[in-house]
Amino acid sequence: MMKKELIDEKEFKEFEENAAFIESEDLIKWTVENEFFLGIQQKILQKGAKLIVGPRGTGKTHQMRFAYNTCLHHKNKPLAIYASFTKYYHLEPFLSKKSNAITIFHTWVLSKILLSCYQLLYDLNKSDIELYEKGSILSQKDLEKFTSQTEKGTSQEWHDDIITNLTIDEVINTIEELAIKLGRTRTILLLDDAALTLTPEYLIEFFDVFRSLKKGRIQA
C-alpha cells in the first residue's frame, strides 16, 4: 500500500503566486536583493518618468510593489502611489457600444489612482485622514462602485456625476494635499500593466493622463 503524500497548502501556493496577489509581508520576505534588483529599485525612486518593460513574468509588478513598500514607512523616501490597471480589457467593449468610451476609460484611470490613495492611507494606518468630505461623489465607496460597475461593462446614469467631477486637476490637488499631510516632499506614481498592453485607443488616452499628472510634487 502506497503512502499518500500531503502537500502543505501554503507551500503549494508559493509555487503559483503572482506578485500582484502576494501579501506585502511575503513579497518582502521572499525577495532576494541583488545588485541588479537594487539598481532597478534605485532608478524607480529617482526623479523622472520610467517605463519598465519586459515579457510577462519578468518581475515588473514585483519591482513596483517592492518600491511601494519601501517608501511606505520611510519619510525620507517619496510618497509612492501604486495603481494596477490589469482589468483594462473589461472596458474594451465600450469602444463598440458607447460614444464616450474614451471618457469612461479616462475617468476609470483617475478613479483607480484615487482609490490607490485611499489604500495608501489604509496601509499607513491613517484612514482617519479624509481625502474628501462625507457625501462627496468622490468618496471611496462611490469610486469603488463606479470602477466595479465599469469593469463589468455597465454604464449607469449616476456615473455622469463622477465623470464630471473627477478631473486631472482634482487628482493632482488631492495627491499634493495628501503628500503635504504625510510630510513628503514629492510623489511617484507606480502605474502597473498600463502601457504596452492597452488597446490602441486607450493607450493614447492613458499616456495623455500620464503626462498631465506630472506636475508640481508629482512624478511618474
TrEMBL record:
A Pfam family: ORC-CDC6-like
Alphabetized SUPFAM superfamilies for the sequence: P-loop containing nucleoside triphosphate hydrolases
Descriptive protein name: Uncharacterized protein
Species of the source: marine sediment metagenome
